[in-house]
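Recap from last week: sequence in, structure out.
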Amino acid sequence: MLNKLLGRVVAVEVDEVRPMLLSALYFFLVMAGYFVVRPLRDDMGLAGGVRNLPWLYTGTLVGMLLVHPIFAAMVSKLTRRRFISLSYHIVAGLMVLFFALLSVLDEAQLIWVDRAFWVYTSVFNLFVVSIFWSVMADVFKPAQGARIFGFIAVGGTAGAMLGSAVTASLAEAIPTRFLLFASIALIEAAVLVALALLRHTTENANESEDDRPTGDEVIGGSVMAGISAVFSSPYLLGIVGYMLLYTITSTFLYFEQAEIMSEIFEDRGARTAFFAKLDLAVNTLT
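Predicted structure tokens:
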């Protein structure tokens, strides 16, 4: 029954249904976890003043440069199963740390916690989504991806809508730092689903002698592998150019939005709720 229903909306084979649904759920949880905290990040960015936002972007760049070698070292030494678990556990653990700092520090100190959280969330978003799509590239062959990645992406959009709705409904009712626990729960649930997906893929690979990577293999690679791959591929260089132009445009618009929001809202809970409602509207429309 479920296979027939799915077959009407996506060209999926019977043996692809389970991994496709697990992947959609995995993406749903990852995006829900991020969009719970994204409005908190936007509010914290304004807490230190709009004029300091460029420095937060600089901090994000520095954070990416610091994290990338660690990320690459983990990729080169750990199995997929271990790498995914450890990466998401680190993300969740840092949220616990931020909750503790937000709970005990005074107002003067909190401004630096807010800035650190803004940078952390920006880096977290880049890495957790990259990890997800790297798993998808391992689990599905290119022909499969062309047919079912659209369905999986819908799971991510639905998760973004849920995360935004949670924050929009609770940001004015409770201290916003408690929303971190909702994000932690979603991220940890994503780990369980990712492991179930890898376990299913490994079992199928063993039964069918498929040559696709399994969760028990070391990923491999090096710090420079991705850079060399980009510069050797016109296709990847085109993607880099597209992302550069997109980021420049979106950053300009983000600054304009921040300027407007700083003038309209004085209450931080109301401002966080508005950012969440804005995210919900955008994700609903797209």
